[in-house]
What does this fold into?
Amino acid sequence: MVASLTNRNLNSERDNPMSDEKYSLRNYVNIFVPLMIYVIISLMVEIAVASVLSFRYILTHEDGTSLDVKAISDMVNSGYAEYGSYISIAIALVCIPVFVFLYINDKKKDKAYERAGASFYVIVGIMGILACICFSNFVDSLNVDGFLKLFSQDADEPSYSGNTVAAFIASAICSPVLEELLFRGLLYGRMRRFGWKFASSAIVTGLIFASLHSNIMQAVYAFLIGTLFCYVFEKSKSIVAPVVMHLSANIFAFWANEFNLLSDMYEMDKMYFYFLNILLFFVLALIGRFVELRFVLKTIDRSEEEL
It folds into this structure.
């Protein structure tokens, strides 16, 4: 018995060889390399778009007049606003294959993995829609007398521009896949692999995720729902679960904004509004507990599966 316990401890140490130096500089670099890759690719795409727009302006002003730097800057900014959805799609198309490769490479280092059936992902999708409603209402309830809007003057402006199809592809499909691969699959996954606790990993990932959103209201919402995505990823051990959850939340949010599906909810009496929020939070918590107890399946050892 003593020998088997000793061997088990040694095996766990071998499975996580860097757990004793989880806060080393090397591990920090490994954790945040994917984020640096994302920032570099985003900057390269935006610089390419700015170069094309500037070159187009120069071609249309070949009459010898001096170039107006402010006019070029205004054209670039208007181009970003006009083609924002297409820029987001381009960034996603470049980043997603890179992050998929990194995620698969990271998963090879894990000795065990888990499987889930279709019913699990249906439940996770429902959780995504409920989370979208709950956290949106929670953030709205915090906006007492416009307090949050003092810090978010552009809160009512759309995050994605362009036609409806492009905006839907960018916000409801590309962004969830890209963000879950980056924040949950790579950043959070590497933090946990290097020995970070769940709480610290989820909070740090959530703060970084929130910081990339355009205003304080979106940042609070992103932090809350991002932490929930970490919880689902932690329990399922599969990136598919938070991707499905994020997809369902963003798809619902997109069409809810397009067709004002929740307008009646925001116009109801405050007391009923808060009661509905509490009820939705309770249902969301029950489903989360059900996922934890029922759909976290047995861990399958790869070495046993290969036999």
Summary: Residues 1-20, 144-159, 297-304 have pLDDT under 50 and may be disordered. The two ends are 25 Å apart (CA to CA). Strands lie at 112-113, 300-301.
